[in-house]
Amino acid sequence: MMRTEETKRLARGDSAFRNPQSAIRRPGFTLVELLVVITIIGILAALLVAAIGPALRKANQTTIVVQIGQLDAALKDYQNVSGSYPPNTQTDGTTGPLAEATVLTDFKQHFQRAFPSHRERPQMIEALVGLSVLAPDSPVVGTDNNLANDATNLPGGMTAAEALVFWVGGFSDDPKYPISGPGGPSYPLTGGNPNEIDPIADRGWRLGIDLPNLGPRDPDTNYFPANYSRHIEFADPRDGSVVRRINFWVLRAPGSQSPYLYFDASRGSGVQGTNDAPAATLGDFSESDVMQESLEALFDVYAIKKLAENAQATLPYQFANNGKFQILHAGVDDEWAGTPRIDTSDSTSKTLVPPDVVYPRGPWELELLDTLTNFSDGTLEDAQP
């Protein structure tokens, strides 16, 4: 009977029969403890971000440096084959400071040296430097014998970014038609959307590149934008009834919107206003707001200068990497800043207005600090003493 009573009390959970440990309460985190934990997690996250940020920045910088090295090698290979480094083609209209006649002469001489048996029409070559006689919006007339009317114009000539892709993008194996032949930079407009039939993947590239890094691209179609007028059309030199087109692409670093720039530093030793071209101009032609916005970041970007090695030189400034070429990129901040230029704005005395900074001493500031080049081991900030 007694055992039965104890069993009943145990079943009821009477305190005399409870497990002593069951009376110990386990409280949760207090508010103070929770705040301490959150603070510790925040500190650890901040330390992690502080460590990862520079690592990612360094990795992105290394990617750009590697590609600059590839472009450098491709241009040196081009020089070995063609006999000289390719020229820039920026022009700014007859009222600007650039020597446009010299720009055209340099292009023609180089092209003739690189392709001595070529039969490309001179009007197409003039269009590449923005000096075609045909107005930029006029249609190509390729069905008659008037050679003055067989090429639309590229306002301002090829930019420093467009010229880089043009020269390393490869040319046709046809020695007579390096631009108009198969595998060259042009293609026939023989049906279909002219922006979609560009055989960009079939170019004879001098280096391996990831084609999606070529821009500009329409975000919806991934093709050359239909409203982007950086292209020329010209009559095929073998058949004037066939119209051919060249789209002018630029090459961007992976994850970057800033293009690589090419500046020729091989023609002449001194720098003056007539040969100190910006990375882009619009010549004497007006462009749409879309065009203006896409190019304006390059209007104040010039080749990097250095002091002449001869202190008594008539022209006290030279191009950095003088006698060769420059490849520039805005760096991981993806922001271009105005680089020094030589200005001969005094047309009477031709007095040189010196640049604010010269290579390597600088001082480089703000967005210029992380600018990367093919003639320095690191950034411009790293190069200065």
Question: In words, what does this structure look like?
Answer:
By secondary structure, the protein is α+β, with helices and mostly antiparallel strands. The chain has helices spanning 2-12, 31-82, 100-114, 122-128, 160-168, 289-295, 380-383, and strands spanning 187-188, 214-215, 231-236, 239-247, 250-251, 261-264, 305-307, 317-319, 325-329, 372-373. Strands 1-4-3 form a three-stranded antiparallel sheet. The chain starts with a helix and ends with a helix. This is Type II secretion system protein G. Pfam families: N_methyl. Keywords: Membrane, Transmembrane, Transmembrane helix.
Q: How far is the first residue's CA from the last residue's CA?
A: 101 Å
Low-pLDDT segments, ≥5 res: 141-148
Q: Within the largest sheet, what's the order of strands?
A: 1-4-3
Order of helices and strands: HHHHHEEEEEEHEEEEH
Helix content range of the residues, please? Answer: 25-40%
Biggest β-sheet description: 3 strands, antiparallel
The tally of helices reads: 7
Got a strand count? 10
- Classify the secondary structure makeup into a structural class: alpha+beta
Beta-strand share of residues: 5-15%
Rg over alpha carbons: 32 Å
Let me know the average pLDDT.
82
**Shape call:** globular
